[in-house]
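Retro notes
What went well: the complex prediction finally ran end to end.
Inputs used:
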Amino acid sequence: MSWIHYVFRKKTNRQKYKPVILITGCSSGIGYALAELLHDQMEYRVAITAREKSLKTLYDRFEESERFIIRPLDVTSEISRQECIDSICEKWGSVNVLVNNAGISYRSVVEHMDEESELHQMETNYLGPINLIRLVLPSMRRIGRGKIINVSSVSGMLAMPTMSSYSASKFALEGASEALWYEMKPLGINVSIIQTGFIRSKSFENVYYSKKAEVCSISKDQAYCDYYANMTPFVAKMMSLSLTSPEKLAKLILNVVRTEKPRLRIPGTLDAYFFYYLRRLIPRRFFHEILFWCLPNAKHWAKDYSNLRK
Ligand SMILES: NC(=O)c1ccc[n+]([C@@H]2O[C@H](COP(=O)([O-])OP(=O)(O)OC[C@H]3O[C@@H](n4cnc5c(N)ncnc54)[C@H](OP(=O)(O)O)[C@@H]3O)[C@@H](O)[C@H]2O)c1
């Protein structure tokens, strides 16, 4: 083959290459905004996914085409994960970019969590994403390129009361992503974590409560009732005041998809930058004390309960 043929073939191959992007949790929030954004990006083939119960939202809004498909995917189900990847690979051969976006959040103090709720949290935010990564890595490795984009949270760098399990799941996701970054670097596969702070969305309405947390959050006479009474409206307020919309986050993720070598940790919102630097500037022994006093009414938490004990 002459060099002219070689260059020509390389160029046309490059022009034909349309990376396949798989996004989890597209029925609302960031996933939905990303689906909308990618719907019009002709240079990609896109598989948007949702659990069966939410698929209608996607079929009502989007039309499938040669380069845009809708598939059922429950990240907590091994069968669902395998069927989804098989279906995409059957159509397009492989997944080149995996966006692990689906996530849930439990609002519960440690004492009120139960094993079932802990497992639900970890299966959705950690085990599901990691198992999906395992399914897409072999073909990425063979091709010698690919991107894993994990949507994490500020809760993956610092924990807040009533959000222990959510934080644990995001800390776990960040830890595994960091290890994966080292493992994939020699193989040409990029790993990025999007560290998202408060987003102006309604996702706080989708918060899960463990059974004990649910009872306590509506009562006024238990040790932890102040924690729920203050943290729930605080989080809702911070989200409504946030300058970042799901659409803005979707643009950031698209930017990461387009960047040849994106960084491992990418702050997604202003508060993510703020907490990143705060952690570095304030000595560790003062950091948690200062944050505690910034929590709404924290100095009065459990006061009635403690007075009863005296
Ligand atoms: N919103 C924020 O302020 C914020 C802050 C930090 C980090 N984040 C992270 O950003 C990501 C997206 O959150 P969001 O704000 O867009 O929340 P959201 O609007 O509640 O969206 C979450 C999505 O995950 C899906 N999902 C839940 N369980 C699933 C499962 N088992 N299998 C597949 N999909 C499932 C939901 O679909 P269904 O319709 O099936 O329930 C929904 O589409 C999450 O990882 C979250 O932790 C959000």
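What we learned: The beta strands are 20-23, 45-50, 68-72, 97-100, 146-151, 189-195, 265-267.
What to try next: split runs per interface for comparison.
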